[in-house]
Amino acid sequence: MKLETASVLAAALCAAAFADPYGAPPDAMHAWAVHDDFRPLPKKVAVGENGIPSDAKLLFDGSRESVEANWCDSKGNPTKWRVDPDGTFVSVAGAGYVFTKDAFADCQLHVEWASPVNVDPKLKGQARGNSGVFLMGNFEVQVLDSYETDPDAPGGNKNPNYADGQAGAVYGQNPPAVNPCRAPGEFNTYDIVFHPPVFDAAGALAEPAQITVFFNGVLVQDGWKFDGPTGFRKRAEYARWRSDTGLKRADRMPIAFQDHGNPVRYRNVWVREIPRPSANTVHGAYYAKPGDAADLRRKTAAELDAKWNELWAHIPVGRRLAAAWRIAVYSPTPARMGRVDAIEKEFLEAVKGAASAGEVLKLTGIGHADLRDYLKRVKDAGFFDEDPVLTRLLELK
Fold it and tell me: What contacts 368, CB < 8 A, 6 or more positions away?
């Protein structure tokens, strides 16, 4: 195949994709059309057999080396928490909180934990398997043996405890919706999505911290908004600058696990940094900033202009018209609208004698209904009052 032929074929294939029907065009709050094939595609993330996404940071993999690389005590020194032969990271009484060396903000966190077995049966409630997962060192999801802390437990409630202190609770604020806790020695899983608080320039709270928690695959915290950093026996409030971990509030802070004197075991800990929902400022009625959306539309149109001669200058007139309109609705400059007008005249000349939709396809390379429906959406979006091509297409059956 000659290079010229290959180029023409590639252009035709790209043009075909470009002219496929798609939904409502961009507008002030949406940088992309509905079903827009020029909207950037998501980055590929592979998930291994171990369930860990390829873009996650593995904080504990069962080795002492991962502890040395990722964890420390409150002063930045090596932690006294131990790694047992079974590859679990174990809280040591008196060792204090353990902190990640890296700081995080918005994140997805995966933690597996198990409360201890062979506990003195006289110990109840907060004395059984107590620890905690602290986001940004301030916002706690409780870790506790809550296996028999409910009236429906076998033999009744053998381990009574207060509701906002159970496993899966936003400690001191919101109980878990249900109690899926497993027996001591069995591993539980937390999958957490966390968004930190946002403060304005004056230091006043603009958005509270928010958390969603899946506990053994069960939703127990559904977008809970924190009253403030975690505390004990006091109402949480954002005026409180330090939590029980002792960390002062900052934009990015470590993740911490609590030492509460119980040998709670952890394993398979990983975190993914994620954007805040409000960071999506270029698309969406509830998120977009019109200036950012307009800038992206202009950028997209300019990039497509640069490809015009290579991809669309010599394709059938119907597809060329769809391409010209599509670029223009991103950013309707006089030059782009002039190109639309010129191609519309060529299109109307081509279909002057057409008596059916089938003839339009044969003469212009695009389906009558596809182009008609697209131009209707462009018209509804306010890009023109009356368009001669749309008027002509509406005449045909």
Answer: 357, 358, 360, 361, 393, 396
As a whole number of angstroms, the distance between CA 173 and CA 4 comes to 68
Neighbours of 34 (CB within 10 A): 12
Tell the residue number behind the tokens 């509270």, with chain if given. 208
Give the start-to-end residue ranges of the domains of the chain: 3-31+282-395, 57-279
In Å, how far from its chain's centre is CA 291?
Answer: 23
Decide if 189 contacts 217 (C-beta within 8 A): yes
* Predicted TM-score of the model (pTM): 0.86
In which element (H, E) is residue 379 found? Answer: helix 368-380
**Below-70 pLDDT ranges, the chain:** 1-22, 119-127, 153-157, 240-244
Q: Which fold would CATH assign to domain 57-279?
A: Jelly Rolls (2.60.120)
Longest dimension (CA), the chain: 94
pLDDT, tens digit, 9 for 90 and up, residues 25-64:
999 999 999 999 899 999 999 998 899 999 999 999 999 9
Residue type, 81: W
